[in-house]
Hints:
single chain, Rossmann fold, eight-stranded mixed beta sheet, seven-stranded mixed beta sheet, 16% strand
Amino acid sequence: MHIGVPKEIKNHEYRVGMVPASVRELVQNGHTVTVEKNAGNGIGFTDQDYIAAGASIEDQANTIFAKADMIVKVKEPQAIERAMLREGQILFTYLHLAPDLPQTQDLIDSKAVCIAYETVTDTKGGLPLLAPMSEVAGRMAIQAGAQSLEKSNQGSGMLLGGVPGVSPAKVVIIGGGMVGNNAAQMAVGLGADVTILDRNINTLRNLDIQFGSRVKVLYSTTDVLEAEVLAADLVIGAVLIPGAAAPKLVTREHIAKMKPGSAIVDVAIDQGGCFETSHATTHQDPTFIVDEVVHYCVANMPGAVARTSTFALNNATLPYIIKLANLGYKGALQNDQGLLAGLNVINGQLTCESVAIAHQLHYVSAATALAV
Length: 372
């Protein structure tokens, strides 16, 4: 199979779909890999590094899209990239279709085989290709939140951990999954006063065992969420419903009542965000103010630590890339039910039910669509 790795073109996105070591694995399996010129420069890999691993280099993305049987990326294809997709071509990347109707429609129209990292599952129902970026984003959320609280960024001027004789900042994390857990680790390490809200009792029990008295874990009722958000200096939105749009748990009214100079970090922004006042921002212009509350809503947070993120992502995606290349998409999807769960679009049909519900579009099960 011919695998193409284009350079990412989203704002301040320096990650790359495959590092040279991953390319070498594909070449050793008998496949051809073409990488766009300078695709790895942002994380310290030269074109010569890719050539040494067995790849060829192309100057233009459109040449790669035209040649490749499978496109491996990191972020969702931008409009100019979606126009290059063709019928039967495999696209393997993050998609986040639930809040993005234009992308959804373009992928349907392309008749490409679109497999989303974020909905691939493992044997335990986990999300193995989302997990590494969730770990990164959770840890980054505290860094971003700490900076957002600085006075130069229109925050209240609080230090997360305080100092002797001065109280630390109160950090509230909505969601105790992978993002929330990693955010809590960082916040606790900095000495903040940390509370995690979740509705899964088993999750709360596990967090209590992990953190003990260093973190307060609370069942998230409407009353509890409101009280904690209004008392917070920093709120981290770490809610995930796989493949679906994030619920708007923090309302505009909540934001209006928060302390002036407090901050929110909406890690769920890729799925539309869990704060009603959120809209996607970029690393170039990461924050905005609503009712004196600093909003950090960067849609590709891990791109800021592109080298760490790329290696973490490649470690997770490589076995699936090899499987798709070795077996073809039909063989790979039929062989692996977890990978089949990642199929969002095929042959002009939408196969992710939560996306279909979000956009009120026709849905066909992945197994049915694949059998055609």
